[in-house]
Write a structure and sequence with these properties.
The complex is a heterodimer. By secondary structure, chain A is an alpha/beta fold. Chain A contains five helices and 20 strands. Chain A has two domains: 324 residues, no CATH class; 60 residues, no CATH class. Chain A is 16% helix and 45% strand. Chain B is α/β, with parallel strands linked by helices. In chain B, α12 crosses α13. The chains are: A alpha/beta, B alpha/beta. At the A-B interface, β19 and β20 of A face β22, β24 and β25 of B.
Amino acid sequence: MSEIRVNPLSVLTWNKLELNYAKMGVDAALKAEDGPRENNLPEGVSFKGALDDAAYAKWLADNGIEYVKEAVVAGKYPMPEEQALPTGMGAEVDKLLADKKVPAILYEVSKTIEPPLRFDYTYSDGDAVLENMIIHVRKGCEITLILNIGGEAGSGYVGHSLKLFLEEGAKLTLVRLQMLPKGFQYFEDAGARLMDRAELKYISLQLGSAKTYLGACFDQWGYESRLWAGLGYIGLKDSFLDHNFVDTFRGKKTVGVMRFNGVLMDNAVKVSRETLDFRQYCTGADGDEEEDLLVLGEDAVNKANPMILGEEEDVSGRHAVSVGRLSQDMLFYMQSRGIDEIKAQELMVRSRIMQLASQIPDDELKKNVERYLDRLYCDRENCPSPC
Amino acid sequence: MAEARKDSPIDIAEDRKGELLADVERGLYDFKEEEREEDFYKVDEGLTEAIVRRISEEKHDPEWMLDFRLKSLKIYNELEIPDWGPPIDGLDMKHIVTYVKPKTGMKASWDEVPEDIKNAFEKLGIPQAEREALAGVGAQYDSELVYHNVRKDVEAQGVIYTDMESALTGEYEEMVRSHFMKLVPPTDHKFAALHGAVWSGGSFVYAPPGSKVEIPLQSYFRLNAPGAGQFEHTLIIIDEGADVHFIEGCSAPKYNVANLHAGCVELFVGKNAHLRYSTIENWSKNMYNLNTKRAICEEGGTIEWISGSFGSHVSYLYPTSVLKGDHSHGEFTGVTFAGKGQNLDTGAKMIHIGKNTSSFIDTKSICKSGGISTYRSSVEIRKQAEGSKASVNCGSLMLDSISRSDTVPAMDIRTDKADVGHEAKIGRISDDAVFYMMSRGVSEAEARAMIVSGFANPVSKELPLEYAAEMNNLIKLEMEMG
């Protein structure tokens, strides 16, 4: 496997910490996802074609999206990634897609769609697939899109890249649910541009795959644009998760909220980068980011770098991190009511994941998550009530 | 729009006021004592083996120290300049004089200090501070200490407070040898290696078991020569159960050439000992302040850092606490004020190794008039540090939109039996608070200065009164000058 550099930290810090970026292995056999693109689309959602590099560049230009050379930030260097529509994982994922000749599948939403639109991806043993998608939501339109990614037992490599463009007043709820088997490596990238009063709700729930890389960059260009982003994950034995979420505030009175809820078990490793980036003239912007991590594994490793970057005075930004084991007070409370430690842990894990899963507007998928959690506790040792 | 504001008549008037204040008020720190060639010994500009050997010879180093310097020089030449912090392109070692020694010995009586040097420290209020508040004072002028004195009651407890050169060549040589650059090895980074090669001056403190120094010891560092570097080494060893408060102050006049400060502070805190290390740093704004400070705590030991960073053009400063012993504790309380032309990258590091260790970081960053303030930290909790707790709290206050404030904290936690909390906030001065104060007769400028002083209060309240007053004056000065 060759390696590419992904999830770059928005400003560099001490190299010894190994947080400035991640190195991600790339399977040489990777190829573009194929299959029908136009089937079962509701009225108002249209497939606009598979864009090659030139067509993608034209689409960017047609929509006024161009690379903005960034000012020097805290450290010595300008922002390291040169992307017209920046993504969390960075420019090397775009380059990988170009090298593998993976076209960008463009969907355009030109009408408000009530029922959620769901795309199911089911992968098999040996798959090595890249998906590259653009969702363009036209002015004032609304849609809920669910990307449901799962697979049969086995091993493989799956990468999904997603670019989002929300025009003035557009609203998008996006759910990315990943329940791949443990043998898979997975990456999930996103770059979003929000124009005036656009609203994006972004939910990412990561319950499968042993090695996972996630990136998301939300560029809030528009006046009063709003973002709510939530990431939930469970790191199981021998699993690795690396993520980079960036919320860039450029428009006035923009609001961004990011929530990260995770659980690390056994020897799971998690590396996180979370940035609130307030650019000059984003007056009245308000950013809030919170990470809550429950550590249940003696050999778990948690590395984090939550940052606030500010070049505008009139903003309000806050981030908070809480990392720890199950509270002894909470445990005592539960034990005094006849709930043993394993069950108490299970309840805490369930509450964290279901808090996010309950927001998925699809009953079948919610049940899938519940079943996954049931199995998780049955598969573990000392389960008091095998199901 | 920031640019529009800058061109407004009010701002032009404010700028002029700032210039006037710069000429008048800043004189407290910016006065220059003319250095006559015949009163000082200097090595040539640049960094070569010959210069390092010359410094060693001048200082009458033992053989092992010369070897150490030469090894450090080799490491310096091999290491790269950091690629992650503020730019230091304006610093050219070829034009830095690494050793400037006043041709006067270290004096124990203030009256014996040469008049021009004495004037410099009198203007900074050092003897006054000694008379009124301190247990011992060391005053370093350029590369060497020119004055040193310790109160008799402190000496009577067996506390040693002397200059590094005396400690190195006297009865404490072995103690120095076994501790010198053991916490900050020259391989740590390029400027630690530079320090190892050309260090001179600084203080040595040893507090024997059970000793308590009720009032602070102080060192004051003044870099007067243009284009010079100051590389003082502070080595403090606090033995079991002892308790010391050490204060350092730094200042320099402003020149149009780069000056460099690459000092090193190593603090060894013994079992159940307590050390508070306070710094008010007000280097001139042509200074590259690339300083390294590190403490190690044995079982039950406590290190407290109090830090006020106001000066220098560029700063890299991250006091590190290595909590090696079980139940040891580290605290860092700091305020950084970055004004026009300043890029101050400051913060702290906590490394938890012992069981049930705890740490607390509380920092405040303020930036104004185009200044860049970066809070950078790391909290590491090693696997064996079960039962540890760490809390980080950082606040940033931006006073205009042409400045920049960044918060770059990192965590690396490798045990499930630890609790870590981190909180950061960025914001501006509340209009409501300013309005409230103005409605009670306080001018807007005063109201803003008072709010900023209040924001920095967690640091100033931890300092002795004289230093808290100095810090508040610095904040006021920065608020007025921009």
